[in-house]
Amino acid sequence: MSQSITIEEYQKRRARLLARLKKASAHAIAVIPSAQLQTRSRDTEFPFRQDSDFFYLTGFNEPNAVLVLAPHADAPVQLYCQPISPHEEVWHGRRLGVDKAAETLGIDFAASIDDVDDHLYALLDGTEKVYFAHDKHDLAAQLYSIADELRASPKQGHQAPQAWVDINPWLAEMRIIKSPAELELMREAARISVLAHKRAMLFAKPGKFEYQVAAEIHHEFAMHGAISPAYGTICGGGENACILHYTENQSELRDGDLLLIDAGAEYQGFAGDITRTFPVNGRFTETQKELYNVVLAAQQAALATLKPGSNLPTAMKAAGKTLTEGLHALGILKGSLKKLIDDEAFRPFMIHGLGHWLGLDVHDVGTYTQEGKKRKFEPGMVLTIEPGIYIPKGMPNVDEKWHGIGIRIEDDVIITENGHENMTSAVPKTVAEIEQWMTAK
Ligand code: GLY
Ligand code: MN
Ligand code: MN
Predict the structure, then answer these.
(1) Exposed, middle or buried: residue 285 (CB in 10 Å: 0-12, 13-18, 19+)?
(2) Is the domain 177-439 a CATH 3.40.50.300 member?
(3) The domain 7-174 is classified under which CATH number: 3.40.350.10, 3.40.50.2000, 3.30.70.120, 3.50.50.60?
(4) For each successive 10 residues of the chain (441 residues), what is the average pLDDT?
(5) What is the pTM of this model?
(6) Binding-site residues, ligand 1, Cβ < 6 A
(7) Which long-range contacts (CB under 8 A, 24 or more apart) does 36-42 make?
(8) Measured in angstroms, how far is the CA atom of residue 364 from the centroid of ligand 2?
(9) Minimum CA distance residue for ligand 1 atom 4
Protein backbone atom coordinates (compact mmCIF):
# COMPACT_ATOMS: atom_id res chain seq x y z
CA MET A 1 0.00 0.00 0.00
CA SER A 2 1.55 3.28 -1.09
CA GLN A 3 1.39 6.43 1.01
CA SER A 4 -1.35 8.85 0.16
CA ILE A 5 -0.58 12.41 -0.85
CA THR A 6 0.11 14.46 2.31
CA ILE A 7 -1.95 17.45 3.47
CA GLU A 8 1.19 19.55 2.95
CA GLU A 9 1.32 18.59 -0.72
CA TYR A 10 -2.32 19.56 -1.23
CA GLN A 11 -1.58 22.85 0.55
CA LYS A 12 1.37 23.50 -1.76
CA ARG A 13 -0.80 22.92 -4.84
CA ARG A 14 -3.40 25.38 -3.56
CA ALA A 15 -0.67 27.89 -2.68
CA ARG A 16 0.61 27.73 -6.27
CA LEU A 17 -2.87 28.48 -7.58
CA LEU A 18 -3.39 31.28 -5.05
CA ALA A 19 -0.11 32.87 -6.15
CA ARG A 20 -1.17 32.70 -9.81
CA LEU A 21 -4.55 34.25 -9.00
CA LYS A 22 -2.83 37.08 -7.12
CA LYS A 23 -0.55 37.70 -10.07
CA ALA A 24 -3.43 37.61 -12.56
CA SER A 25 -5.48 40.31 -10.90
CA ALA A 26 -5.80 42.44 -7.78
CA HIS A 27 -9.12 40.75 -7.21
CA ALA A 28 -9.57 37.25 -8.62
CA ILE A 29 -11.11 34.08 -7.26
CA ALA A 30 -11.26 30.45 -8.39
CA VAL A 31 -14.18 28.09 -7.94
CA ILE A 32 -13.60 24.34 -8.24
CA PRO A 33 -16.57 21.99 -7.74
CA SER A 34 -16.61 18.33 -6.71
CA ALA A 35 -18.28 15.73 -8.89
CA GLN A 36 -21.93 14.94 -8.25
CA LEU A 37 -23.60 11.56 -7.97
CA GLN A 38 -24.97 10.38 -11.33
CA THR A 39 -28.23 8.47 -11.67
CA ARG A 40 -27.85 4.88 -12.87
CA SER A 41 -31.48 3.83 -12.69
CA ARG A 42 -34.42 5.65 -11.09
CA ASP A 43 -33.22 6.39 -7.56
CA THR A 44 -29.93 4.48 -7.58
CA GLU A 45 -26.64 5.98 -8.55
CA PHE A 46 -23.40 4.97 -10.22
CA PRO A 47 -20.52 4.48 -7.79
CA PHE A 48 -19.20 7.93 -6.93
CA ARG A 49 -16.01 9.06 -8.63
CA GLN A 50 -14.52 12.39 -7.56
CA ASP A 51 -13.71 15.12 -10.06
CA SER A 52 -9.99 14.89 -10.83
CA ASP A 53 -9.24 18.62 -10.45
CA PHE A 54 -11.15 18.87 -7.18
CA PHE A 55 -9.40 15.73 -5.90
CA TYR A 56 -6.01 17.07 -7.01
CA LEU A 57 -6.55 20.21 -4.92
CA THR A 58 -8.23 18.70 -1.85
CA GLY A 59 -7.92 14.91 -1.61
CA PHE A 60 -11.56 15.12 -0.46
CA ASN A 61 -13.76 12.34 -1.76
CA GLU A 62 -17.35 13.48 -1.21
CA PRO A 63 -19.88 14.77 -3.72
CA ASN A 64 -21.74 18.04 -3.32
CA ALA A 65 -18.77 20.22 -2.36
CA VAL A 66 -17.09 23.34 -3.72
CA LEU A 67 -13.55 24.64 -3.20
CA VAL A 68 -13.07 28.41 -3.43
CA LEU A 69 -9.68 30.10 -3.62
CA ALA A 70 -9.82 33.80 -2.78
CA PRO A 71 -6.35 35.26 -2.19
CA HIS A 72 -7.67 38.63 -0.98
CA ALA A 73 -10.13 37.12 1.54
CA ASP A 74 -9.43 36.63 5.25
CA ALA A 75 -9.76 32.91 4.60
CA PRO A 76 -8.14 32.33 1.17
CA VAL A 77 -8.97 28.60 1.01
CA GLN A 78 -12.63 27.82 1.58
CA LEU A 79 -14.50 24.54 1.34
CA TYR A 80 -18.25 24.15 1.16
CA CYS A 81 -19.30 20.60 1.96
CA GLN A 82 -22.17 18.44 3.10
CA PRO A 83 -23.02 19.09 6.76
CA ILE A 84 -23.26 16.26 9.27
CA SER A 85 -26.74 14.74 9.11
CA PRO A 86 -27.52 11.57 11.06
CA HIS A 87 -30.57 10.94 8.86
CA GLU A 88 -28.74 11.36 5.55
CA GLU A 89 -25.68 9.49 6.76
CA VAL A 90 -27.59 6.43 7.91
CA TRP A 91 -28.97 6.17 4.35
CA HIS A 92 -26.10 7.35 2.19
CA GLY A 93 -22.87 7.09 4.13
CA ARG A 94 -20.57 9.01 6.46
CA ARG A 95 -19.65 12.61 5.87
CA LEU A 96 -16.63 14.55 7.05
CA GLY A 97 -18.86 17.46 8.01
CA VAL A 98 -18.13 21.16 8.32
CA ASP A 99 -16.55 21.16 11.78
CA LYS A 100 -13.80 18.68 10.95
CA ALA A 101 -13.16 19.83 7.37
CA ALA A 102 -10.74 22.69 8.03
CA GLU A 103 -8.37 20.68 10.22
CA THR A 104 -8.63 17.39 8.31
CA LEU A 105 -7.99 18.97 4.91
CA GLY A 106 -5.69 21.79 6.01
CA ILE A 107 -7.93 24.56 4.72
CA ASP A 108 -8.74 27.97 6.20
CA PHE A 109 -12.51 27.92 6.39
CA ALA A 110 -15.38 25.48 5.89
CA ALA A 111 -19.13 25.98 5.67
CA SER A 112 -22.18 24.04 4.60
CA ILE A 113 -22.80 23.55 0.89
CA ASP A 114 -26.34 24.74 1.63
CA ASP A 115 -24.90 28.23 2.18
CA VAL A 116 -22.52 28.32 -0.79
CA ASP A 117 -24.66 30.66 -2.92
CA ASP A 118 -24.74 33.30 -0.17
CA HIS A 119 -20.96 33.11 0.22
CA LEU A 120 -20.38 33.15 -3.53
CA TYR A 121 -22.64 36.23 -3.81
CA ALA A 122 -20.34 38.08 -1.42
CA LEU A 123 -17.17 36.68 -3.02
CA LEU A 124 -18.18 37.50 -6.60
CA ASP A 125 -19.29 41.02 -5.68
CA GLY A 126 -16.67 43.39 -7.09
CA THR A 127 -14.34 40.57 -8.17
CA GLU A 128 -12.51 41.34 -11.37
CA LYS A 129 -11.83 37.81 -12.67
CA VAL A 130 -13.49 34.52 -11.84
CA TYR A 131 -11.57 31.36 -12.75
CA PHE A 132 -13.54 28.16 -13.22
CA ALA A 133 -13.55 25.19 -15.61
CA HIS A 134 -15.58 26.25 -18.61
CA ASP A 135 -16.65 22.70 -19.39
CA LYS A 136 -18.52 22.54 -16.06
CA HIS A 137 -21.85 23.85 -17.22
CA ASP A 138 -23.81 23.38 -13.99
CA LEU A 139 -21.28 25.50 -12.14
CA ALA A 140 -21.32 28.09 -14.92
CA ALA A 141 -25.12 28.37 -14.64
CA GLN A 142 -24.82 28.76 -10.86
CA LEU A 143 -22.15 31.47 -11.12
CA TYR A 144 -23.89 33.38 -13.92
CA SER A 145 -27.14 33.37 -11.97
CA ILE A 146 -25.37 34.90 -8.96
CA ALA A 147 -23.72 37.44 -11.26
CA ASP A 148 -27.17 38.36 -12.64
CA GLU A 149 -28.33 39.12 -9.12
CA LEU A 150 -25.31 41.36 -8.57
CA ARG A 151 -25.92 43.09 -11.89
CA ALA A 152 -29.51 43.81 -10.87
CA SER A 153 -28.54 45.90 -7.88
CA PRO A 154 -25.85 48.41 -8.91
CA LYS A 155 -27.41 51.20 -6.83
CA GLN A 156 -26.75 49.14 -3.72
CA GLY A 157 -23.11 49.19 -4.75
CA HIS A 158 -23.00 45.63 -6.09
CA GLN A 159 -20.89 44.77 -9.09
CA ALA A 160 -20.82 41.59 -11.15
CA PRO A 161 -17.45 40.07 -12.13
CA GLN A 162 -15.90 41.55 -15.26
CA ALA A 163 -14.22 38.47 -16.69
CA TRP A 164 -14.72 34.73 -16.61
CA VAL A 165 -11.53 32.83 -17.27
CA ASP A 166 -11.10 29.09 -17.93
CA ILE A 167 -9.00 27.55 -15.16
CA ASN A 168 -8.43 24.29 -17.05
CA PRO A 169 -5.12 25.32 -18.68
CA TRP A 170 -3.58 26.21 -15.29
CA LEU A 171 -4.66 22.96 -13.66
CA ALA A 172 -3.56 20.94 -16.67
CA GLU A 173 -0.08 22.49 -16.52
CA MET A 174 0.17 21.63 -12.83
CA ARG A 175 -1.10 18.10 -13.25
CA ILE A 176 1.02 17.17 -16.27
CA ILE A 177 4.19 17.02 -14.14
CA LYS A 178 3.81 14.40 -11.45
CA SER A 179 5.41 14.83 -8.01
CA PRO A 180 7.48 12.04 -6.43
CA ALA A 181 4.49 11.09 -4.25
CA GLU A 182 2.22 10.98 -7.28
CA LEU A 183 4.70 8.82 -9.16
CA GLU A 184 4.70 6.36 -6.26
CA LEU A 185 0.91 6.06 -6.50
CA MET A 186 1.14 5.66 -10.27
CA ARG A 187 3.70 2.88 -9.87
CA GLU A 188 1.23 1.17 -7.55
CA ALA A 189 -1.64 1.58 -10.07
CA ALA A 190 0.72 0.11 -12.67
CA ARG A 191 1.84 -2.75 -10.42
CA ILE A 192 -1.76 -3.78 -9.71
CA SER A 193 -2.63 -3.53 -13.39
CA VAL A 194 0.35 -5.77 -14.21
CA LEU A 195 -0.86 -8.43 -11.75
CA ALA A 196 -4.33 -8.37 -13.27
CA HIS A 197 -3.03 -8.85 -16.82
CA LYS A 198 -0.85 -11.75 -15.73
CA ARG A 199 -3.85 -13.33 -14.01
CA ALA A 200 -6.00 -12.86 -17.11
CA MET A 201 -3.40 -14.63 -19.25
CA LEU A 202 -3.52 -17.62 -16.91
CA PHE A 203 -7.32 -17.68 -16.87
CA ALA A 204 -8.11 -17.29 -20.57
CA LYS A 205 -9.05 -20.47 -22.45
CA PRO A 206 -11.29 -21.45 -25.33
CA GLY A 207 -14.87 -21.56 -24.04
CA LYS A 208 -14.46 -18.84 -21.42
CA PHE A 209 -16.35 -15.61 -22.02
CA GLU A 210 -14.85 -12.15 -22.38
CA TYR A 211 -16.82 -10.90 -19.34
CA GLN A 212 -15.35 -13.72 -17.26
CA VAL A 213 -11.85 -12.53 -18.15
CA ALA A 214 -12.92 -9.00 -17.18
CA ALA A 215 -14.21 -10.34 -13.84
CA GLU A 216 -10.81 -11.95 -13.14
CA ILE A 217 -9.13 -8.63 -13.83
CA HIS A 218 -11.48 -6.65 -11.59
CA HIS A 219 -11.08 -9.25 -8.84
CA GLU A 220 -7.31 -8.83 -8.91
CA PHE A 221 -7.64 -5.03 -8.88
CA ALA A 222 -9.85 -5.10 -5.79
CA MET A 223 -7.64 -7.58 -3.96
CA HIS A 224 -4.88 -4.96 -4.12
CA GLY A 225 -6.95 -2.00 -3.04
CA ALA A 226 -8.03 -0.75 -6.45
CA ILE A 227 -11.78 -1.01 -6.20
CA SER A 228 -12.50 0.33 -9.64
CA PRO A 229 -10.99 0.09 -13.08
CA ALA A 230 -9.70 3.40 -14.44
CA TYR A 231 -11.91 3.03 -17.56
CA GLY A 232 -14.18 0.48 -19.17
CA THR A 233 -12.24 -2.78 -19.40
CA ILE A 234 -11.78 -4.01 -22.95
CA CYS A 235 -11.64 -7.78 -23.50
CA GLY A 236 -11.92 -8.40 -27.21
CA GLY A 237 -11.50 -11.90 -28.59
CA GLY A 238 -10.84 -12.44 -32.31
CA GLU A 239 -12.20 -9.69 -34.51
CA ASN A 240 -13.66 -7.84 -31.50
CA ALA A 241 -10.07 -6.63 -31.00
CA CYS A 242 -10.53 -4.46 -34.09
CA ILE A 243 -13.14 -2.34 -32.26
CA LEU A 244 -10.94 0.17 -30.48
CA HIS A 245 -13.18 0.87 -27.48
CA TYR A 246 -14.93 -2.52 -27.37
CA THR A 247 -16.49 -2.87 -23.90
CA GLU A 248 -19.42 -5.22 -24.59
CA ASN A 249 -17.25 -8.18 -23.51
CA GLN A 250 -20.05 -10.67 -24.29
CA SER A 251 -18.43 -13.14 -26.68
CA GLU A 252 -17.10 -16.61 -26.07
CA LEU A 253 -13.34 -16.99 -26.56
CA ARG A 254 -12.45 -19.26 -29.45
CA ASP A 255 -9.58 -21.64 -29.95
CA GLY A 256 -7.09 -20.15 -32.40
CA ASP A 257 -8.12 -16.54 -31.77
CA LEU A 258 -6.15 -13.76 -30.15
CA LEU A 259 -7.54 -11.89 -27.14
CA LEU A 260 -6.84 -8.17 -26.75
CA ILE A 261 -7.14 -6.90 -23.18
CA ASP A 262 -6.94 -3.19 -22.44
CA ALA A 263 -7.40 -2.75 -18.69
CA GLY A 264 -6.01 -0.56 -15.93
CA ALA A 265 -6.61 -0.21 -12.22
CA GLU A 266 -7.48 3.07 -10.58
CA TYR A 267 -5.46 3.41 -7.39
CA GLN A 268 -6.03 6.39 -5.11
CA GLY A 269 -7.36 8.22 -8.13
CA PHE A 270 -4.49 7.34 -10.49
CA ALA A 271 -4.94 5.28 -13.64
CA GLY A 272 -3.02 2.33 -14.98
CA ASP A 273 -3.57 1.63 -18.70
CA ILE A 274 -2.11 -1.58 -20.12
CA THR A 275 -2.89 -3.52 -23.27
CA ARG A 276 -1.69 -6.98 -24.11
CA THR A 277 -2.76 -9.23 -26.96
CA PHE A 278 -2.22 -12.96 -26.63
CA PRO A 279 -3.53 -16.28 -27.97
CA VAL A 280 -6.59 -17.66 -26.21
CA ASN A 281 -5.03 -21.14 -26.24
CA GLY A 282 -1.55 -20.01 -25.21
CA ARG A 283 0.19 -20.55 -28.58
CA PHE A 284 0.47 -18.01 -31.40
CA THR A 285 -0.13 -19.24 -34.95
CA GLU A 286 2.63 -18.34 -37.43
CA THR A 287 0.39 -15.69 -38.98
CA GLN A 288 -0.43 -14.13 -35.61
CA LYS A 289 3.20 -14.25 -34.55
CA GLU A 290 4.37 -12.42 -37.67
CA LEU A 291 1.91 -9.58 -37.22
CA TYR A 292 2.43 -9.47 -33.45
CA ASN A 293 6.17 -9.04 -33.84
CA VAL A 294 5.62 -6.03 -36.09
CA VAL A 295 3.56 -4.27 -33.39
CA LEU A 296 6.09 -5.27 -30.75
CA ALA A 297 8.99 -3.88 -32.78
CA ALA A 298 7.06 -0.66 -33.33
CA GLN A 299 6.44 -0.31 -29.61
CA GLN A 300 10.10 -0.96 -28.83
CA ALA A 301 11.16 1.61 -31.44
CA ALA A 302 8.83 4.20 -29.93
CA LEU A 303 9.90 3.44 -26.35
CA ALA A 304 13.56 3.83 -27.32
CA THR A 305 12.97 7.49 -28.23
CA LEU A 306 11.49 8.53 -24.87
CA LYS A 307 13.64 11.00 -22.95
CA PRO A 308 13.51 14.64 -21.84
CA GLY A 309 13.56 17.02 -24.80
CA SER A 310 12.05 14.52 -27.21
CA ASN A 311 8.33 14.44 -28.02
CA LEU A 312 5.39 12.21 -28.91
CA PRO A 313 5.51 12.87 -32.70
CA THR A 314 9.14 11.65 -32.69
CA ALA A 315 8.02 8.43 -30.99
CA MET A 316 5.15 8.17 -33.47
CA LYS A 317 7.54 8.56 -36.38
CA ALA A 318 9.71 5.71 -35.08
CA ALA A 319 6.66 3.50 -34.52
CA GLY A 320 5.15 4.39 -37.90
CA LYS A 321 8.36 3.62 -39.75
CA THR A 322 8.69 0.24 -38.02
CA LEU A 323 5.03 -0.62 -38.67
CA THR A 324 5.41 0.26 -42.33
CA GLU A 325 8.62 -1.76 -42.70
CA GLY A 326 6.97 -4.72 -40.99
CA LEU A 327 3.79 -4.57 -43.05
CA HIS A 328 5.92 -4.28 -46.18
CA ALA A 329 8.08 -7.25 -45.21
CA LEU A 330 4.91 -9.35 -44.74
CA GLY A 331 3.62 -8.29 -48.17
CA ILE A 332 0.63 -6.51 -46.71
CA LEU A 333 1.93 -3.16 -47.98
CA LYS A 334 3.31 -3.30 -51.50
CA GLY A 335 5.58 -1.02 -53.50
CA SER A 336 8.55 1.18 -52.77
CA LEU A 337 9.39 1.03 -49.06
CA LYS A 338 10.74 4.55 -49.04
CA LYS A 339 7.56 5.89 -50.57
CA LEU A 340 5.41 3.84 -48.18
CA ILE A 341 7.32 5.28 -45.21
CA ASP A 342 7.05 8.84 -46.57
CA ASP A 343 3.31 8.35 -47.17
CA GLU A 344 2.75 6.87 -43.68
CA ALA A 345 1.15 3.89 -45.37
CA PHE A 346 0.59 2.20 -41.98
CA ARG A 347 -2.18 4.68 -41.13
CA PRO A 348 -5.18 2.60 -42.30
CA PHE A 349 -3.94 -0.18 -40.00
CA MET A 350 -3.65 2.06 -36.92
CA ILE A 351 -6.15 4.89 -36.93
CA HIS A 352 -5.54 5.96 -33.31
CA GLY A 353 -2.73 7.97 -31.75
CA LEU A 354 0.42 6.42 -30.34
CA GLY A 355 -0.24 7.42 -26.75
CA HIS A 356 -1.52 9.99 -24.29
CA TRP A 357 -0.74 11.59 -20.95
CA LEU A 358 -1.70 9.40 -18.01
CA GLY A 359 -2.58 10.49 -14.46
CA LEU A 360 -5.74 11.06 -12.45
CA ASP A 361 -7.58 10.71 -15.76
CA VAL A 362 -6.69 7.85 -18.07
CA HIS A 363 -6.56 10.33 -20.93
CA ASP A 364 -4.96 12.87 -18.67
CA VAL A 365 -4.97 16.63 -18.96
CA GLY A 366 -2.11 18.53 -20.55
CA THR A 367 -1.59 19.93 -24.03
CA TYR A 368 0.29 18.11 -26.79
CA THR A 369 1.64 21.31 -28.27
CA GLN A 370 3.16 24.35 -26.60
CA GLU A 371 3.32 27.76 -28.22
CA GLY A 372 2.50 26.12 -31.53
CA LYS A 373 5.35 23.60 -31.25
CA LYS A 374 5.47 19.92 -30.41
CA ARG A 375 5.44 19.58 -26.66
CA LYS A 376 8.79 18.46 -25.30
CA PHE A 377 8.99 15.71 -22.72
CA GLU A 378 10.09 16.73 -19.22
CA PRO A 379 10.99 14.57 -16.21
CA GLY A 380 7.85 13.71 -14.26
CA MET A 381 5.56 13.41 -17.26
CA VAL A 382 3.74 10.09 -17.60
CA LEU A 383 2.35 8.72 -20.84
CA THR A 384 1.30 5.55 -22.60
CA ILE A 385 2.86 4.05 -25.71
CA GLU A 386 0.32 1.90 -27.52
CA PRO A 387 0.82 1.07 -31.18
CA GLY A 388 -1.46 -1.43 -32.88
CA ILE A 389 -2.42 -3.10 -36.13
CA TYR A 390 -6.07 -3.83 -36.85
CA ILE A 391 -7.22 -5.78 -39.91
CA PRO A 392 -10.98 -6.24 -39.72
CA LYS A 393 -12.71 -8.78 -41.93
CA GLY A 394 -13.23 -7.44 -45.42
CA MET A 395 -10.37 -4.96 -45.30
CA PRO A 396 -9.73 -4.32 -49.01
CA ASN A 397 -6.41 -5.20 -50.67
CA VAL A 398 -5.26 -7.33 -47.73
CA ASP A 399 -4.91 -11.11 -48.03
CA GLU A 400 -7.69 -12.90 -46.16
CA LYS A 401 -5.22 -14.80 -44.01
CA TRP A 402 -4.71 -11.59 -41.99
CA HIS A 403 -8.40 -10.77 -41.61
CA GLY A 404 -9.96 -10.59 -38.16
CA ILE A 405 -6.73 -9.83 -36.31
CA GLY A 406 -6.42 -6.85 -33.99
CA ILE A 407 -3.24 -6.33 -31.95
CA ARG A 408 -2.29 -3.54 -29.55
CA ILE A 409 0.55 -3.41 -27.03
CA GLU A 410 0.45 -0.65 -24.40
CA ASP A 411 2.75 0.29 -21.54
CA ASP A 412 2.84 3.16 -19.02
CA VAL A 413 6.02 5.19 -18.94
CA ILE A 414 7.53 7.91 -16.74
CA ILE A 415 9.91 10.40 -18.35
CA THR A 416 12.95 10.48 -16.03
CA GLU A 417 15.99 12.80 -15.84
CA ASN A 418 17.98 10.60 -18.24
CA GLY A 419 15.41 8.65 -20.20
CA HIS A 420 12.33 6.79 -19.13
CA GLU A 421 10.97 4.16 -16.76
CA ASN A 422 8.51 1.60 -18.10
CA MET A 423 6.22 0.90 -15.13
CA THR A 424 4.36 -1.97 -16.78
CA SER A 425 7.10 -3.97 -18.47
CA ALA A 426 6.54 -6.93 -16.12
CA VAL A 427 3.53 -8.18 -18.07
CA PRO A 428 4.79 -10.85 -20.50
CA LYS A 429 5.18 -9.17 -23.86
CA THR A 430 7.37 -11.07 -26.30
CA VAL A 431 5.93 -14.15 -28.00
CA ALA A 432 8.25 -16.36 -25.94
CA GLU A 433 7.38 -14.65 -22.65
CA ILE A 434 3.64 -14.91 -23.30
CA GLU A 435 3.73 -18.54 -24.39
CA GLN A 436 5.91 -19.48 -21.47
CA TRP A 437 3.68 -17.71 -18.92
CA MET A 438 0.50 -19.20 -20.37
CA THR A 439 1.70 -22.78 -20.72
CA ALA A 440 3.89 -23.17 -17.63
CA LYS A 441 0.90 -23.16 -15.25
N1 GLY B 1 -7.74 2.42 -22.54
C2 GLY B 1 -7.88 3.55 -23.37
C3 GLY B 1 -6.63 3.86 -24.04
O4 GLY B 1 -5.75 3.03 -24.11
O5 GLY B 1 -6.41 4.96 -24.47
MN1 MN C 1 -5.52 1.38 -22.91
MN1 MN D 1 -4.15 4.26 -23.42
Answers:
(1) middle
(2) no
(3) 3.40.350.10
(4) 86 98 95 97 96 98 98 97 96 95 97 98 97 97 98 95 97 98 98 98 98 98 98 98 95 98 98 98 98 98 98 98 98 98 98 98 97 96 98 96 98 98 98 96 58
(5) 0.97
(6) 231, 262, 273, 356, 362, 386, 410
(7) 36/63, 36/64, 36/138, 37/63
(8) 12
(9) 273
